């Protein structure tokens, strides 16, 4: 709500202004009142209103003097002069001061409504402009670091052509050491730590790691974020002499101290994987991938460890899981929901009982079972099997932080797609898209009409929904939803006295500012202007 201050020495006129308009319908609230210019100045400085309606001629300080003083302190305040005197001198002085408008008494409700709508729109446009300016400044401030982070991510993934890119010139001198070693730090309870201790702010987690790491590591160490995995951070240590790199005890000790310090800060559980020492920049990628493998050698229950890369070969999957895998293959082929659930729960009970299971083997097990699910469904229900990969991105598996999460993800995915295969065999795509349209129309005010929500409900991918809807009804689904919501909003604006905020909620928009922008984009006017023009 934008705050309004009324300054008028006549009590009945002030009361008339207060009741002349449904201020809340325009996103406004009367924050205060004053009887003269001195009181008005003090109230304005205390309340910092967005809009002031003030009389011109008042005892003591008049409206123009007060307005001039207020604008010196609060230059963004919108001030409207109200006077019974149609005097060019007042109007000229108001214009020179940059005041927003000048009203002649007696004032009609339509005039106040028009000005209120205009000033609210101006405030919203100014707020949007400021927001964009702040975002641009913030983006410019971060752009070079983000650029380097992106380039370094490409580099450690094997694109050593990056070294020759002109944008890399500022970092190029760093790549002149005799030897290098990569390390990867992973926050094992990243999701919980971010939620419980950082209010869900990913940037704050990165800021913590960056500050502590930069403070504790020597100047010969680069630290940057792994962009495709928010819980992982990459270190590249440079050694001045090759013989130093053959015995990196100091780097190892620094990593051990680092996990202790970070672990004591906001209850983060961290591990570090150390890659091998290499003697050429083109081999840094190899050291990095070995650091990742070192992390995968650890058990999910491990914490505060620094694990060096070993040449041990990880098995394709834990040995204790093999009997369950064979059973699951048969259960999936028969689309037997209860037996699939029993097999998965039994397998994870066995995994929990194991003394140690490398996380790399668990990731491979999950990937193998999801591939098996896809193949089984494809054999029985070709259309359904084809869709599995659209719902399960394999790269997300390594983000799972516990056996509980792995069990839940695997069980949910398998049961969901078995159910999908069964239902798809009796419901064709055209019938499904008709049912989807009926559901959207009947629940147009619901916020759960995203493509993701609808895809889960109707067993189709977002792409299929968009394609089929456009083909069947010659209209984009999102435009259809927006059109129906705008029709609902316009009807409520014309037939009710509900506030704009209430109408936004009843039209499916919890964010009133977003509703305001969307309404203006679709209709060419603000909700308040629409109500004024159609009532």
Automatic annotation (TrEMBL):
Keyword Transcription: yes or no? yes
Task: Return the GO cellular component terms, semicolon-separated.
Answer: cytoplasm
Residue ranges annotated for the HTH araC/xylS-type domain, each copy included: 434-533
User: Which InterPro entries does this entry report, sorted A to Z?
Assistant: CheY-like_superfamily, Homeodomain-like_sf, HptR, HTH_AraC, Sig_transdc_resp-reg_receiver, Tscrpt_reg_AraC-type_HTH
Q: Which PANTHER family match?
A: HISTIDINE KINASE-RELATED, TRANSCRIPTIONAL REGULATORY PROTEIN HPTR
Native source organism of the sequence = Paenibacillus elgii
Name of the protein in its database record: Two-component system response regulator
Where found in the cell? Cytoplasm
Annotated SUPFAM superfamilies = CheY-like (SSF52172), Homeodomain-like (SSF46689)
Q: Which domain of life is it from?
A: Bacteria
Name the keywords, alphabetized.
Cytoplasm, DNA-binding, Phosphoprotein, Transcription, Transcription regulation, Two-component regulatory system
Entry GO MF terms: DNA-binding transcription factor activity; sequence-specific DNA binding
> SMART domains, from UniProt?
HTH_ARAC (SM00342), REC (SM00448)
Query: Which PROSITE patterns does the record cross-reference, listed alphabetically?
Result: HTH_ARAC_FAMILY_2, RESPONSE_REGULATORY
Q: Does the keyword Phosphoprotein apply?
A: yes
Residues with 4-aspartylphosphate modification: 55
Q: Which residues cross the membrane?
A: none
An example GO BP is: phosphorelay signal transduction system
Q: Where is the Response regulatory domain?
A: 3-120
């Amino acid at each position: 709500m934008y705050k309004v201050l009324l300054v008028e020495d006549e009590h009945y006129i002030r009361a008339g202004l207060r009741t002349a308009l449904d201020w809340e319908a325009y996103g406004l609230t009367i924050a205060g009142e004053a009887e003269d210019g001195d009181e008005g100045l003090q109230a304005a400085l205390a309340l910092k209103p967005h809009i002031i309606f003030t009389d011109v001629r008042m005892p003591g300080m008049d409206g123009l003097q007060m307005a001039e003083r207020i604008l010196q302190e609060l230059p963004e305040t919108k001030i409207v002069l109200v006077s019974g005197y149609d005097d060019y001198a007042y109007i000229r002085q108001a214009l020179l001061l940059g005041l927003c408008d000048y009203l002649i008494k007696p004032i009609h409700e339509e005039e106040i409504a028009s000005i209120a709508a205009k000033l609210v729109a101006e405030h919203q446009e100014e707020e949007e402009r400021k927001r964009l300016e702040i975002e641009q400044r913030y983006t410019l401030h971060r752009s070079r670091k983000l650029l380097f982070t992106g380039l370094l991510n490409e580099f450690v993934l094997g694109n050593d052509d990056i070294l020759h890119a002109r944008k890399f010139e500022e970092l190029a001198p760093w790549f002149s050491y005799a030897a290098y070693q990569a390390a990867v730090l992973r926050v094992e309870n990243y999701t919980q730590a971010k939620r419980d201790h950082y209010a869900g702010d990913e940037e704050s987690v990165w800021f913590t790691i960056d500050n502590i790491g930069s403070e504790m590591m020597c100047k010969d160490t680069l630290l940057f974020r792994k962009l495709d995995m928010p819980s992982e951070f990459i270190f590249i240590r440079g050694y001045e002499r090759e013989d130093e790199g053959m015995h990196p005890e100091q780097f190892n000790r620094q990593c051990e101290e680092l996990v202790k310090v970070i672990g004591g800060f906001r209850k983060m559980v961290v591990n570090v994987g150390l890659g091998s020492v290499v003697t050429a920049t083109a081999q840094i990628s190899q050291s990095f991938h070995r650091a990742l493998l070192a992390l995968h050698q650890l058990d999910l229950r491990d914490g505060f460890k620094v694990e060096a890369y070993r040449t041990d070969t990880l098995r394709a999957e834990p040995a204790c899981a093999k009997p369950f895998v064979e059973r699951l293959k048969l259960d999936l082929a028969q689309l037997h929901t209860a037996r699939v659930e029993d097999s998965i729960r039994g397998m994870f009970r066995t995994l929990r009982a194991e003394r140690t299971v490398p996380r790399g083997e668990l990731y491979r097990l999950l990937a193998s079972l999801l591939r098996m699910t896809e193949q089984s469904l494809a054999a029985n229900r070709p259309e359904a099997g084809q869709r599995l990969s659209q719902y399960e991105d394999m790269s997300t598996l390594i983000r799972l932080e516990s056996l509980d999460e792995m069990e839940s993800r695997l069980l949910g995915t398998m049961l969901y797609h078995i159910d999908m295969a069964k239902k798809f065999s009796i419901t064709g795509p055209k019938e499904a898209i008709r049912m989807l349209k009926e559901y959207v129309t009947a629940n147009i005010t619901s916020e759960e009409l995203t493509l993701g929500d609808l895809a889960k409900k109707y067993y189709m991918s977002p792409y299929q929904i968009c394609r089929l809807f456009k083909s069947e009804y010659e209209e984009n689904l999102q435009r259809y939803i927006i059109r129906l919501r705008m029709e609902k909003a316009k009807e409520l604006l014309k037939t009710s006295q509900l506030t704009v905020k209430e109408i936004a909620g009843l039209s499916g928009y919890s964010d009133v500012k977003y509703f305001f922008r969307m309404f203006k984009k679709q209709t060419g006017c603000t909700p308040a202007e629409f109500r004024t023009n159609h009532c």
